[in-house]
Amino acid sequence: MRKLPFPIVIIVMTFLFITVSCKKQDKKEAEAAKISLETPFDSTLVKTFFVNHPKLQKYQGDVEKLYRKHQFHYVWYDDNGINDFGNLLYDKLNNLEEEGVQVDVPYKNQLADIYEDPDNDQKPDIAAELLSSSLYFFYADKVFHGISANKMKDLEWYLPRKKQSYVSYLDSLLIEPNLINKDEKGVLSQYYLLKNVLQKYREIEKKGGWKTITIDPNVKSYKPGDNSTTIAQIRQRLFVTGDISRDSKSTVYDDVLADGILKYKLRSGNIPDKIILPAHIKDMNVSVGQRIKTITVNMERCRWISNDITKSPEFIVVNIPAYELTYFNNGKPELRSKVVVGKALNKTVVFSAVMKFIAFSPYWNVPTSILKKEILPAIEENENYLAEHNMEWHDSYVRQKPGKDNSLGKVKFLFPNSNNIYLHDTPSKSLFNSEDRAFSHGCIRVAKPKDLANIILKNDPNWTPEKIDAAMNSDTETMYRLKNKIPVYIGYFTSWVDDKGMIHFYEDIYNRDERLASLIFAK
């Protein structure tokens, strides 16, 4: 057997010694890390951390609550270093714009040093641990919670807000990190639909958006068969947003463009006809940047509503800017109806309540404000005013008796509330033919009141369609208490994604978007 030269033997022995030593060292470090993870850290370090990170002091209480729950053990590390959710959170913080959030992340460079340097994310580090926890609560605050309840009231939004424990929520995310990508249990599911559209519109913006359409002051309208360069511009505009599948660049208003116009009008709250008016072109000329802002504003509104509202067997939603009521049964829309809402001086309030009664052939008790401003001056000019309008004095107020001309129509739906707002029929049916339907004193007039009454009472053995019809055409008021109470939500959304994935934009009739945008886009 040939002997190895002595120098080679030395080299081999040295290599083996180093290898064994490294393995022992790695084992020692792993054991040390494990001991560190199992050993609570000094609780006083939390206070010290926030002294050194004042921009995050808002979240100190949540962080302290988190670690008291975990007995001051590390939550962002496992045996391999920073855990999966820590890395996912870091990615989320770097892409806040995808969530419609325009805000700078505090101590972002320090966070990058931790997560992007492989040598820094292996061993448990108290500064990295507390920074991760603080920025988790920062993320939850901006993405899930949104602006404060007090600011919501300043914006005249009174829908109830569910309290969410983001300490408990973190435990779920640590077990299943991908919940953060689409957790419909916390935020209204509409949020995620808007988020998807936001990405689409940002892609459109990156490609240059859409061109401004020239409005010819001498043309009052365009109809099928017309020929104009403006038609070609409209065609290109609708192609960009997917309302038509191909841009033929034709200047002739053909059937393909007509279908695109109908689709565009459907999602813009317009009357679904094929006539193109200057007002429609003006709406098409709203920039993609402004549309992105509108989507972002409405994502913020979604943060204020828990998805739990959809768990009710049946509920009613009124979207004020859409002038639309939707009745849901088992999570699916069963009835849609046009509505008339309060005008700018008598805004319909954003709130929720539970429908408990239906009044057939109702009296209309004239509100004090209307009595003083309208009825009393009319009586002074015409002493027969009350009789001519089927009204009467009742105690100290005026009421209108049941009948076809009653201002509440033939039925009203009551959900007792301090705003004295309810749903009702109306004798003024022509108002539902208008695109803009903000005409009332605050209450909500329903275009399909009979359909609504029938669908609400369809499982009530006390009622049939025939009985409902008779009660609606009586000279006597019938007040009925519902067996099943129905939640009613009156909201304000100027953009909304429907159940087919189509984005709708509505006029900001109460001018609330800019006020909200100024809050959420403030640095």
UniProtKB/TrEMBL annotation:
Q: Where is the active site?
A: H424 (proton donor/acceptor), C443 (nucleophile)
Its keywords, alphabetically, are: Cell shape, Cell wall biogenesis/degradation, Peptidoglycan synthesis, Transferase
Which InterPro entries does the record match to this protein?
LD-transpeptidase_YkuD-like, LD_TPept_cat_dom, LD_TPept_scaffold_dom, Transpep_catalytic_dom
The cross-references to SUPFAM superfamilies, in alphabetical order and at most eight, read:
L,D-transpeptidase catalytic domain-like (SSF141523)
The segment(s) forming the L,D-TPase catalytic domain are 314-469
What does the record give as its pathway?
A: Cell wall biogenesis; peptidoglycan biosynthesis
What family does the entry list?
A: Belongs to the YkuD family.
Q: What is this protein called?
A: Murein L,D-transpeptidase
Give the organism the record lists.
Flavobacterium fructosi
